[in-house]
Amino acid sequence: MAEDTARAFVCGHPVAHSRSPLIHGYWLQEHGIAGIYERQDVAPEAFETFLRNLADGPYVGGNVTIPHKQTAHRLVDRRDEAAEIIGAVNTLWFENGRLCGGNTDAYGFAANLDATAPGWAEGGVATVLGAGGAGRAVVHALRERSMRDIRIVNRTVARAEELAHRFAGPTSAHGWEALPDLLADTTLLVNTTSLGMAGAAPLALDLAPLPAPAVVTDIVYVPLETPLLAAASQRGLRTADGLGMLLHQAVPGFERWFGVRPQVTPALRDIVVADLEAKA
């Protein structure tokens, strides 16, 4: 193998299901780059050592997924603004020998909506379901786009209050029972919970109160059309699935490691969809 071949990775536990090698492998081939992107299954007890040894090679950086995002946030030498605010790291790279950590989830979320539902932020009123790590990234993206009212809804209201307090500004916390009233003027509805994911309970939600111009998006991408998105489509609302977020969040990392900013194209999406369907 040539010494100048750039190598990157995705690490998690488990990590065999990750579509990141498929995405980055497509871009490497598309741009004729002699690079490698591979999976590294790293158990939680081995992750700190893995991170400490990165500077010794052979990698120029990589992605971090569950369950290591918070640990990576704690251990890197420097964090970008998004990672600092969100409290998690999903992208690693080196600058002057220092291990840096970033978070591209908020970027991926907004870029997906920009591509599939142009003008999504203009209404300014977002209702976010869930107050976990994904919720943090989504709320950060919404703050970056100057949404004037961000409602965080969670079955455990205390967790929603914690997230609302973390971001302050136009954020508020609510219990699930408040949804019928909140949806009446919501212009963007976001599901960041695992409800509706394959193998999980469905997200049972009456979308009748949503205004006609509202956009509905789900960060879940297995299945590609969740029950929430199916219900929104039946109402004639604009929707955005979670696969687009996965594809767009990969762009900044690829650019850092391989020096080319790739594009999310229908051809790439088709390849990942085919893989999802084959393994369904």
Automatic annotation (TrEMBL):
SDH C-terminal domain mapped to chain residues: 242-264
Start and end residues of each Quinate/shikimate 5-dehydrogenase/glutamyl-tRNA reductase domain: 126-194
SUPFAM superfamilies: Aminoacid dehydrogenase-like, N-terminal domain, NAD(P)-binding Rossmann-fold domains
E.C. numbers: 1.1.1.25
Pathway: Metabolic intermediate biosynthesis; chorismate biosynthesis; chorismate from D-erythrose 4-phosphate and phosphoenolpyruvate: step 4/7
Keywords: Amino-acid biosynthesis, Aromatic amino acid biosynthesis, NADP, Oxidoreductase
Binding sites annotated in the UniProt record for shikimate: S18, R19, S20, T65, N90, D105, Y221, Q249
Domain (Shikimate dehydrogenase substrate binding N-terminal): residue spans on this chain: 10-92
Active-site annotation: K69 (proton acceptor)
Reaction catalysis annotation: shikimate + NADP(+) = 3-dehydroshikimate + NADPH + H(+)
Binding site for NADP(+): E81, G130, A131, G132, G133, A134, N154, R155, T156, V157, A158, R159, I219, G242
InterPro entries found in the cross-reference section: Aminoacid_DH-like_N_sf, NAD(P)-bd_dom_sf, SDH_C, Shikimate_DH, Shikimate_DH-bd_N, Shikimate_DH_fam, Shikm_DH/Glu-tRNA_Rdtase
UniProt enzyme class: oxidoreductase
Nucleus recorded as keyword: no
Coiled-coil features, chain-numbered ranges: none
Family assignment from sequence similarity: Belongs to the shikimate dehydrogenase family.
Name of protein: Shikimate dehydrogenase (NADP(+))
Species of origin: Chelativorans salis
Gene this protein is translated from: aroE
